[in-house]
């Protein structure tokens, strides 16, 4: 019968709870604390140490993972949902900007590169990879270009 006061089990369940909570409270933050709890679980299982070191490992690994991986993981889970506007910039400021075509347009659809990220795009004209286009509008996460 499992000992429910075993620190290894407590850290594992806390990590599981935090990772599952990420699906309820999105923001790609809580998941790192869940992973930190699981790292603490593994190290505690391998080496066994006191509560002070457990808390130090949990907090430090969670914060390091958060600082290093959040932006990358957020793009994976959420994608590039909105154009990254610079401070004081509006969507109107984006209109008219030139973008590089990164994928040939077929049936009016293709891909363009804007500020280092690849975006879905639509155009009434056939555009070839390597050519430049101009943003004329945006619908959701798709640029309309010409």
Q: What is the β-strand count?
A: 5
Structure annotation, total helices = 4
Strand order within the widest beta sheet = 1-2-3-5-4
Classify the secondary structure makeup into a structural class: alpha+beta
Any idea what the shape is? Answer: elongated
- Report the C-alpha radius of gyration, rounded: 23 Å
Number of domains: 2
Helix content: 40-55%
Spell the H/E element sequence: HHHHEEEEE
End-to-end CA span: 68 Å
Averaged pLDDT? 86
Share of β-strand residues: 15-25%
Oligomer: single chain
Uncertain segments are none
Largest sheet: 5 strands, mixed, barrel
How would you briefly describe this protein structure?
The protein is α+β, with helices and mostly antiparallel strands and 146 residues long. It has helices at 7-24, 30-47, 51-78, 91-94, and strands at 98-106, 109-114, 117-122, 132-139, 142-145. The model has no long low-confidence stretch (mean pLDDT 86).
């Amino acid at each position: 019968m499992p000992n429910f006061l075993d620190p290894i089990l407590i850290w594992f369940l806390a990590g599981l709870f935090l990772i599952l909570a990420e699906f309820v409270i999105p923001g790609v933050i809580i998941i790192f604390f869940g992973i930190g709890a699981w790292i603490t679980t593994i190290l505690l299982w391998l080496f066994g140490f006191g509560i002070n070191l457990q808390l130090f490992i949990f907090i430090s690994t969670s914060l390091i993972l958060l600082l290093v991986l959040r932006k990358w993981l957020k793009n994976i889970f959420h994608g590039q949902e909105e154009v990254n506007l610079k401070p004081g910039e509006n969507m109107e400021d984006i209109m008219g900007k030139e973008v590089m075509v990164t994928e040939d347009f077929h049936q009016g659809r293709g891909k363009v590169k804007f500020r280092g990220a690849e975006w879905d795009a639509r155009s009434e004209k056939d555009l070839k990879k390597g050519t430049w286009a101009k943003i004329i509008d945006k619908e959701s996460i798709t640029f309309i270009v010409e």
